[in-house]
UniProtKB/TrEMBL annotation:
Keywords linked to the UniProt accession: Hydrolase
Xref: InterPro entries: GH (IPR017853), Glyco_hydro_1 (IPR001360)
Molecular-function GO term, any one: beta-glucosidase activity
Family to which this protein belongs: Belongs to the glycosyl hydrolase 1 family.
Domain of life: Eukaryota
Stretches assigned to coiled coil: none
SUPFAM superfamilies: (Trans)glycosidases
Source organism per UniProt: Lentithecium fluviatile CBS 122367
Protein name: Glycoside hydrolase family 1 protein
GO biological process: carbohydrate metabolic process
Length: 597
């Protein structure tokens, strides 16, 4: 989970080409200053005094709203779309309490709710500092002073359209904490320490569940217009399935969150599921894992997301309808799934995601009559051919990218069947009928991608991509390519991070060109970031001066806090946030290039 930057790209021009050249690069943006352009400079002396001054700038906050925009009818006009919906509330789970609830006969009562937590072997369960929502305070001006200028930055004449959407994001599982508070039931990431005892748990993280108003205050003070967050399914429907009561505390919490975002002049965007499948979709704890060597996507530390569960599709659609009917009047952008390829177990998983996404899109557009936008977020470490002039390398890169993207994007954006890269590799794929494709086609308003980095791709050694795809025991399945971070020149593809990410801006432009021309849609960059190497070992003042990067705060990165993608630091003892340099530059880069409306 990283910083979210929403970018709608009507056109992108780029092409990966290796061009041989020698000598220093030209500086086409520089005009010659004749005063300093002579071959033999003339030297002189004068008196010295400290006269250079530094311009001190402060961030410009989002202006207070003057109008209210409605993106759909209010819940009172939509409640008939999900009839017989009931609400209730539960308490907080505490493993030290020995008393037993007395409503054992109620399948959705406190006894049943507590039993879901009691069945999970959480080790060293802890709570954070806070147990109720913290009232926000204004951000001191001295925190909003921009850092000193750095020279040798890119100079360009590009601009952003006035409608460019700039935002930051956090996912619930990574920032909220309070996992057993106010009716929430267990999700897949809550048991990470069961599968990996050395991992840090998600029990507390950033305590955003109680600090959300202060976090939003900080974002608004920096001038960011959009705040993207996810809502945990297990907070809204603790018993998951249609017919179970809705958690009133969960609805009230996110209702207040949405309203507070709007009150600060910002706009909310909501993701329905982000690496937090409710644990009730798994047969047991070990059932959350994907056995080594199986699965379709990068597998989230071995976790699978149980999309293939026979109850998942209908239950997810019901959950999505609950959120959309309650919040569609105030939320302009919705994401159904976050990176669904990750943790997909088999062909049934892919099919369930496609069908559930399409059903919610049609529900939003045709029954809610929503005027906002709906999309689905994809992952893909963009594959670039080792040698773009070698047809086998190009074929491998195309196979790699289509396998990660086109199995979803072909039906959604083009109304086309799964790509051959997917069908030839995943033998249990669920065929799509002509009526399926007609229903799924056009069910996203823009293409959403999380392009953290690029990877250098070539065919398998001593084999072909096709041979690998047809061999279920091939060690390079399912992608069936060789992945590297080194180019043919021997250099790394970019500057290395603490994690798998390399800074690869040239390939980013190529990637936009690929996406725009392959899937024919506007593009949104929905996650982007860079965990600076060894940042956790630095003094706080050095962490703030994070020149190599640019999530809105360091967070729980699925088992540890060492991979610091955030553009704010978080003190794990006090929960104090501090802006990093990258936050200022992130906003400044866009706003200094934004065209007038």
């Amino acid at each position: 989970m990283i910083s979210k930057l929403l970018l709608f790209a009507p056109a992108v021009l780029a092409q990966q080409v290796y061009v041989s050249a020698s000598g220093p690069p030209t500086r086409s943006q520089c005009s010659v200053n004749n005063t300093y352009a002579t071959a033999l400079p003339s030297y002189s002396f004068q008196g010295f005094s400290f006269t250079q001054t530094e311009t001190v700038r402060t961030a410009t906050s989002v202006p207070a709203p003057t109008t209210t925009t409605s993106f759909a009818p209010p819940y009172t006009s939509l409640s008939h779309l999900i009839p017989n919906l009931t609400t209730t509330q539960w308490g907080n789970w505490d493993p030290s309490i020995t008393s037993t609830p007395t409503d054992a006969g109620n399948p959705y009562g406190n006894a049943s709710w507590s039993a879901l937590w009691n069945a999970v072997p959480l080790s060293n369960f802890t709570r954070g500092i806070y147990s109720s929502t913290v009232s926000p305070t204004p951000i001191p001006t001295n925190e909003l002073v921009l850092p000193p200028l750095e020279y040798f930055k890119h100079q360009d004449c590009y601009s952003f359209p006035s409608s460019f959407m700039l935002g930051v994001a956090g996912s619930a599982v990574q920032i909220e904490g309070a996992i057993a508070d106010e009716g929430r039931t267990p999700g897949m990431m809550d048991i990470l320490t069961v599968a990996n005892p050395s991992a840090s748990p998600d029990y507390v993280t950033n305590e955003n569940y109680y600090l959300y108003k202060q976090d939003i205050e900080r974002i608004a003070a920096m001038g960011v217009k959009y705040y993207s967050f996810s809502i945990p399914w297990a907070r809204i429907l603790p018993f998951v399935v249609p017919g179970a009561p809705v958690n009133k505390q969960g609805l009230d919490h996110y209702d207040d969150l949405v309203n507070f975002v709007l009150s600060k002049g910002m706009l909310p965007t909501v993701t329905l599921i982000h690496t937090d499948t409710p644990l009730q979709f798994y047969p047991n704890i070990s059932g959350t894992l994907i056995p080594s060597g199986t699965g379709i996507g990068y597998v989230d530390l071995g976790f699978q997301r149980s999309y293939q569960n026979v109850s998942f599709e209908d239950a997810f659609v019901h959950y999505g309808k609950v959120l959309m009917t309650h919040f569609a009047d105030r939320v302009p952008v919705w994401f159904t799934f976050n990176e669904p390829l990750l943790g997909s177990r088999n062909g049934k998983s892919i099919n369930a995601v496609l069908k559930a996404h399409a059903r919610l899109y049609h529900f939003y557009k045709e029954e809610v009559n929503g005027a906002g936008k709906v999309s689905i977020k994809f992952n893909d470490n963009f594959g670039v051919p080792r040698n773009p002039q070698d047809p086998t390398d190009v074929e491998a890169a195309n196979h790699f990218n289509s396998f990660q993207l086109a199995n979803f994007a072909n039906p959604i954006f083009l109304g086309k069947d799964y790509p051959s890269s997917y069908k030839n590799t995943i033998k249990d794929h669920v065929p799509l009928t002509a009526s399926d494709l007609a229903y799924i086609n056009g069910t996203a308003d823009f293409f959403s991608i999380d392009p953290y980095t690029a990877t250098v791709v070539s065919p398998p050694p001593n084999s072909t991509v096709q041979d690998c795809a047809s061999n279920s025991s091939h060690p390079l399945r399912p992608y069936c390519v060789t992945q590297s971070t080194t180019t043919t020149t021997g250099w790394n593809i970019g500057y290395r991070s603490q994690s798998y990410v390399y800074i690869t801006p040239i390939y980013f432009r190529t990637y936009l060109f690929y996406l725009r021309n392959t899937f024919r849609s506007p593009i949104a960059i929905t996650e982007f970031g860079f965990p600076v190497f060894a940042e956790a070992e630095k003094a706080l003042s050095d962490q703030l001066f994070d020149s190599p990067r640019s999530c809105f705060a360091d967070n729980w990165e699925f088992g540890d806090f060492e991979q610091r993608f955030g553009i704010q630091t978080v003190n794990r003892t006090t929960q104090e946030r501090r802006y990093k340099r990258s936050f200022f530059e992130f906003v400044d880069f866009v706003e200094s290039r934004r065209q007038e409306a």
